[in-house]
């Protein structure tokens, strides 16, 4: 009880200033490349998992577990990066220019989820294609022509 009174008096004497931000990323720095890097890691780990010679040894099991953990982590990161672009960068005005914007992002997020729970080369490749499409939409919305590239 006494602590509450002390805190209340402190707050009244030293009020915190009001803070305002228009979105989660008020800096205005957005880029689709982080989603590409994460999606590319998903594709890479999926290929490695499919190529892995799982002979049942502890070493093979450890490698398998590490590849799965990385794949799932990167799929979640890709999803997070896509959702930030979708919900923070794109505005209603962009829907006029890109009528399939919501469907494109929704399907890409669903692919991220599928890549987390499966080892599917098809879904990993579809995720890369979806991220490439989003890359095009994003840079077109900024009036820039930025070439799509991959690290591998």
Describe, in plain words, how this protein is organized in 3D.
It is a single chain. By secondary structure, this protein is an all-alpha fold. The chain has one domain: Four Helix Bundle (Hemerythrin (Met), subunit A), CATH 1.20.120. It has six helices and no strands. α2 runs antiparallel to α6 and α3 (about 60-90) packs antiparallel against α5 (about 100-115). The radius of gyration is 22 Å and the shape is flat.
Q: SS-based structural class?
A: mainly alpha
Order of helices and strands: HHHHHH
The coarse overall form would be flat
Low-confidence stretches: none
- Structure annotation, total helices: 6
- Which architecture name does CATH use? Up-down Bundle
Mean pLDDT: 90
User: What Rg do the Cα atoms give?
Assistant: 22 Å
Could you say what the CATH topology is called? Four Helix Bundle (Hemerythrin (Met), subunit A)
Q: Largest sheet, if any?
A: none
The proportion of residues forming helix, as a percent range, comes to over 70%
Strand content: under 5%
- Assign the CATH class: Mainly Alpha
User: What is the H level of CATH, i.e. the homologous superfamily?
Assistant: Nickel-containing superoxide dismutase
How many domains would you count in the coordinates?
1
